[in-house]
Amino acid sequence: MSMKTLNDLFDHELKDLYYAEHQLVEALQTLADESSDDQIKKAFQSHRKETQGHIKRLDQVFKSLGEKPERETCPGIDGLLKEKKAFAKEKPVDEILDFYNLGAAQKTERYEITAYESLIFMAEALDQVDIVTLLEANLQEEEAALQTLKTLMAKVDTDALIADAEER
């Protein structure tokens, strides 16, 4: 199918993000399981539950459009997940893995934030007010998750991580 209208693009991007959110439910569980820090583990578990809620809202978006929810492969998310898996093969120590995962999750949040902002812009242009509300709710939770990740990263004792490296 060729992209000819804003509606076509909106449909494509919606399916792309729907796929991404499904992939991230699994990825967030992995991040929680890998976490050696309880606060970080809880943050990933909490955002996993929110992500399940994002999927439910996206289901409502599809329903509002009179469409069946459908996923379309998202190369952007797949690339971020591939990068994470490649790093894990390096067998980092727990503290480095926690720090890396916080950064990797921030990259993902920024990707999702941009995707939601774009969908909202298109939905507004297409005069889909009820859809905008659902997408904005997801966007707000993604922005809050990013802030949580930034706060957790700022609490990491990077001096200890540097000292560990110097001792080796």
Notable traits:
168 residues, mainly alpha, 0% strand
How would you describe the overall organization of this protein?
- By secondary structure, this protein is mostly helical.
- The protein has a single domain (6-160), classed as Ferritin, core subunit, four-helix bundle (Ferritin), CATH 1.20.1260.
- The protein is 83% helix and 0% strand.
- It contains six helices and no strands.
- α1 (6-34) runs antiparallel to α4 (94-125), α2 (38-64) runs antiparallel to α5 (129-155) and α3 (75-88) packs antiparallel against α4.
- The protein is elongated, with a radius of gyration of 18 Å.
- The protein starts with 5 loop residues before the first helix and ends with a helix.
- The mean pLDDT is 95.
CATH class: Mainly Alpha
* Overall mean confidence score, pLDDT: 95
Q: Which shape, going by the Cα principal axes?
A: elongated
Beta content: under 5%
Q: Find the count of extended strands (DSSP E, 2+ residues).
A: 0
* Major sheet: none
Oligomer: single chain
- What CATH architecture do you see? Up-down Bundle
> From N to C, what is the helix and strand string?
HHHHHH
The whole-angstrom Rg is: 18 Å
